[in-house]
């Protein structure tokens, strides 16, 4: 296998044939089913639970909070979410679970859960994050320091006030972006078995090791007595990066020792109870000089964390890290806040935090360019970061920076050069325009979370290679990429590899499938492990063949002495090696940088800002029906710099998928919540784009070799989602003026065209 060449994915045929095994596929004649009973009210005190299910047919157990021997608390960074709300405990959103019913069929479990009588004393609730900061607002966690303010952060450099006063032009606005549902094909699901000693769970998860840690604390079992396995996921995008179903499933299994228990969320339950992209309010000001030099940025953005903290703090700090995008600024003043409300909780979602701030930034950049009469892409190039510049977080960029190279390619493209012709070609009753955006996204977690990976690979007795994947495959194909990377280094074809999916008893802790890190961070560790295994193989083969190590070459299935032509099959080589010699382990830490002394980056506990980024320029052609306000995007171009391209097909698929989700975020998806209740309860009313709604996405790669990345690559997964919203918004601004509330539905566009004011409470 050779980097730069597309190869079929190792799981491809199994998926095509329907043979790939997901957590929800696990079956058995004796499997029990578990269903949770939810609170159904946004705020209150749980007073009592009935006993109705105990006498119903097929019911095996009813698990309540007093059945749990551990702390009964979950949380990635803050322990604030109960597995089950105890009697006398606080209800903080409608999806809070109060009990789990276990029965011999799913239908009986569902019926028994519905029959359970729940008595709750209602309490006042708050649903708007800005209102939640008011001293008069109901407090979700009485006695907690800071009240409803979960977390805050800031970045400050220079005197923003005086620099803005000295600017020749300024642009200011407030942008409101909604929650977004992950809408993965596979809802949360899993099967667990407790034998009285060990809790074993196979579950749809992006991070089995952290799940094990959380379950140990919450359920009262030592970590060594918990095993979590992660099969292939039917999508994740961040929504399965955290304990959502696992705690309920584990608690249910521990009430039924010796019986396997299965749990699969309905679509409605998934919509209510899984984490969402945070809704946000972003208030931003940009200032520039008359020659087109950006000088200052001031931003305050507020995230609705919902009832629980989940990943809100990393999302907040990641947003701060991306507020300034790909531009130089003389003065920076950024403030971020994450706020508790009685809404469904926010969590990780592809590009977490970046779309909410760059969606605002790129629109204001476009407005400044328009006021100056400048080409919007040329204006961006003038202010674009290059290697050696200091970015908004105060980090000097010493790695590859693709902002200007991507802009140079974009300025050459026909879709951009012919934008006036496109505008003039609009048929009667339609208007056309072209919008663009410069975007970036950091590699790995960035602020707040240590970023590492540990890889393990072994040469088996049969002369094959067993690769223990440390990061779950959400469908993006990282397992295939790992085999591709290892196969190229070992000069072996992919059919000589066996891939072991993440398993806390067999694989090594490597963090979640998230944060554009699955290839960049884990790939570094994997190639280090491969290099060590190759070294050991050469040492032993040299002894057997009587050759120097530099006179040996790996070939498919064998090692050859270059000078003599003698060969040793890998199975034979394995026979000469002891088991510890045949197994290689290596780790990798993400590169870190410190902000310069001129930047106040806080809070100090938030860790290191990103120092390595992938870059892109997105260009969207938009068309609007002037009678209805309906928006279509007939053509879309993504020009991307993410290091070297290892597999062109998977590279293109990542971009196409990200653009699809980004267009959904821009035009279709509005996860509306009214008084804490989800308005769009399933996919019949929550509209995600289909292939009929999407353009063919043209992909151009700008390849810059990234020295810190495996084979020179960088992460790509999150970057393409960020571009569609600002690119489409900038195109629409030429037709109907600025749009500051998304999604840009036909109703919103129509009212903007007519100069009317829309009642957002009705949208």
UniProtKB/TrEMBL annotation:
Pfam families listed in its UniProt record: Ald_Xan_dh_C, MoCoBD_1, MoCoBD_2
Gene3D superfamilies reported for this sequence: Aldehyde oxidase/xanthine dehydrogenase, a/b hammerhead (3.90.1170.50), Aldehyde oxidase/xanthine dehydrogenase, molybdopterin binding domain (3.30.365.10)
Q: Annotated Gene Ontology MF terms?
A: iron ion binding; oxidoreductase activity
Q: Which residues form the Aldehyde oxidase/xanthine dehydrogenase a/b hammerhead domain?
A: 17-124
> Could you tell me which SUPFAM superfamilies the record lists for this protein?
CO dehydrogenase molybdoprotein N-domain-like (SSF54665), Molybdenum cofactor-binding domain (SSF56003)
Superkingdom, taxonomy of origin: Bacteria
Q: Where are the transmembrane segments?
A: none
InterPro entries this protein is in? Ald_Oxase/Xan_DH_a/b (IPR000674), Ald_Oxase/Xan_DH_a/b_sf (IPR036856), Ald_Oxase/xanthine_DH-like (IPR016208), AldOxase/xan_DH_MoCoBD1 (IPR008274), AldOxase/xan_DH_MoCoBD2 (IPR046867), AldOxase/xan_DH_Mopterin-bd_sf (IPR037165)
Protein name, please? Aldehyde oxidase and xanthine dehydrogenase molybdopterin binding
Q: Which organism is this protein's natural source?
A: Dethiosulfovibrio peptidovorans DSM 11002
Could you read off the lineage of the organism from its UniProt record? Bacteria, Thermotogati, Synergistota, Synergistia, Synergistales
């Amino acid at each position: 296998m050779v980097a730069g060449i597309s190869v079929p994915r190792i799981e491809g045929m199994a998926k095509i044939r329907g043979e790939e095994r997901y957590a929800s596929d696990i079956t058995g004649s004796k499997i029990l089913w578990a269903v949770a009973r939810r609170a159904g009210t946004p705020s209150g005190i749980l007073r009592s639970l009935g006993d109705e299910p105990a006498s119903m047919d097929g019911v095996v157990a009813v698990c309540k909070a007093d059945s749990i021997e551990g702390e009964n608390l979950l949380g990635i960074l803050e322990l604030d979410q109960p597995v089950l709300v105890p009697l006398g405990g606080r209800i903080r959103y409608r999806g809070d679970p109060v009990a789990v019913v276990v029965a011999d069929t799913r239908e009986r479990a569902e019926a028994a859960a519905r029959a359970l009588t729940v008595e709750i004393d209602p309490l006042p609730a708050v649903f708007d994050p800005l209102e939640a900061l008011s001293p008069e607002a109901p407090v979700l966690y009485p006695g907690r320091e800071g009240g409803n303010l979960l977390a805050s952060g800031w970045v400050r450099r220079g005197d923003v006030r005086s620099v803005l006063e000295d600017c020749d032009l300024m642009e200011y606005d407030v942008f409101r972006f909604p929650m977004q549902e992950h809408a993965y094909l596979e809802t949360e699901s899993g099967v667990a078995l407790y034998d009285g000693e060990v809790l074993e769970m196979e579950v749809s998860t992006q991070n089995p090791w952290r799940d094990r840690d959380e379950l140990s604390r919450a359920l009262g079992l030592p970590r060594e007595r918990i095993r979590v396995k992660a099969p292939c996921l039917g999508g994740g995008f961040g929504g399965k990066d955290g304990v959502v179903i696992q705690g309920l499933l584990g608690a249910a299994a521990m009430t039924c020792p010796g019986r396997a228990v299965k749990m699969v969320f309905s679509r409605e339950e998934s919509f209510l109870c899984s984490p969402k992209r945070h809704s946000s309010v972003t208030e931003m000001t940009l200032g520039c000089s008359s020659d087109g030099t950006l000088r200052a940025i001031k931003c305050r953005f507020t995230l609705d964390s919902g009832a629980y903290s989940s990943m809100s703090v990393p999302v907040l700090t990641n947003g701060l890290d991306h507020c300034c995008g790909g531009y130089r600024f003389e003065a920076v003043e950024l403030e971020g806040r994450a706020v508790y409300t009685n809404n469904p909780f926010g969590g990780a979602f592809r590009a977490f935090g970046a779309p909410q701030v760059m969606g605002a930034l790129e629109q204001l950049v476009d407005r400044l360019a328009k006021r100056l009469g400048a080409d919007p892409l040329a204006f961006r190039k003038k202010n674009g970061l290059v290697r050696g510049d200091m970015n908004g977080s105060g980090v000097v960029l010493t790695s590859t920076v693709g902002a200007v190279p991507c802009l140079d390619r974009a300025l050459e493209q026909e879709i951009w050069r012919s934008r006036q012709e496109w505008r003039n070609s609009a048929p009667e009753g339609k208007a056309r325009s072209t919008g663009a955006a410069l975007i970036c996204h950091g590699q790995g977690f960035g602020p707040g979370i240590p970023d590492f990976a540990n890889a393990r690979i072994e040469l088996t007795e049969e002369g094959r290679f067993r690769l223990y994947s440390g990061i779950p495959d959400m469908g993006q194909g990282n397992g295939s990429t790992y085999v591709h990377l290892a196969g190229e280094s070992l000069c072996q074809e992919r059919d000589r590899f066996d891939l072991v999916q993440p398993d806390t008893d067999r694989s090594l802790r490597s963090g979640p499938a998230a944060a554009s890190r699955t290839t960049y961070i884990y790939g570094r560790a994997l190639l280090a492990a491969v290099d060590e295994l190759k070294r050991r193989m050469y040492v032993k083969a040299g002894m057997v063949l009587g050759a120097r190590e530099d006179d040996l070459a790996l070939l498919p299935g064998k090692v050859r002495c270059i000078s003599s032509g003698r060969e040793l099959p890998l199975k034979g080589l394995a026979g000469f090696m002891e088991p510890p010699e045949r197994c290689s382990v290596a780790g990798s830490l993400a590169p870190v940088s410190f902000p310069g002394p001129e930047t106040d980056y806080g809070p100090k506990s938030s860790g290191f800002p990103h120092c390595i980024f992938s870059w892109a320029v997105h260009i969207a052609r938009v068309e609007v029906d002037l009678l209805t306000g309906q928006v279509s995007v007939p053509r879309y171009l993504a020009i991307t710099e993410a290091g070297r391209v290892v597999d062109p097909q998977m590279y293109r698929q990542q971009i196409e998928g990200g653009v699809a989700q980004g267009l959904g975020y821009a035009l279709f998806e509005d996860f509306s919540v009214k008084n804490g209740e989800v308005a769009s309860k399933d996919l019949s009313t929550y509209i995600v784009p289909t292939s009929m709604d999407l353009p063919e996405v043209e992909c151009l790669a700008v390849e810059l070799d990234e020295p810190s990345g495996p084979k020179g690559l960088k992460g790509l997964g999150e970057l393409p989602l960020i571009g569609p919203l600002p690119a489409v918004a900038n195109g629409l601004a030429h037709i109907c003026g600025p749009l500051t509330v998304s999604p840009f539905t036909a109703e919103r566009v129509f009212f903007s065209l007519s100069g009317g004011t829309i009642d957002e409470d009705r949208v």
